[in-house]
Amino acid sequence: MIRFFDFLFSLFGLLVLLPVGLVLFIIGLFDTGKPIFVQERVGKNKKPFNLYKFRTMHISTKSVASHLASRASITKFGGFLRKSKLDELPQLINVLLGDMSLVGPRPNLFNQTELIEEREKRKVYDYLPGITGLAQINEIDMSTPEKLAIKDAEMLQNLSLSSYFKYVLATVGGKGHGDRVA
């Protein structure tokens, strides 16, 4: 049932927000020259997938977890995208394709070995990663791997249709601020 809502909401979101996405894309062209950021992430069963986002950092920024990147790496427009959470909009494509859910643990990079170990212990990779979830609305990010993995596992063990809507609505309503930047 959750996959049905993921598909429906991501398709609807992409169609309705297409004009906004096009405007952000064009502004991004002027900001960095490459407005779409594609990065390989760890998916369900540790299968790699390409995550899509609007670029918020300079092109020369190393591919590391956000909490390891310098605040100076974020462009002015990128700061706006992060604050408004609009940088996540292209991830609706990932949800539509079935690589992600709207609700699930945030997908990490393959070089985040401590987080991978903590999530493996708790079987977090048995589920699709998501755009938002319990950790995100409680402002727990990837800088605290054990704490994040525990919260992810808690969310997944108790995930229901009502909690799915609760996490989505909380995120749309402004809860959570994403990963911190150094």
TrEMBL record:
Parts forming coiled coils: none
Pfam families named in the record: Bac_transf
GO MF annotation terms: transferase activity
Positions of transmembrane segments: 7-30
Entry annotated with the keyword DNA-binding: no
Similarity remark: Belongs to the bacterial sugar transferase family.
Protein's recorded name: Sugar transferase
Organism annotation: Flavobacterium rhizophilum
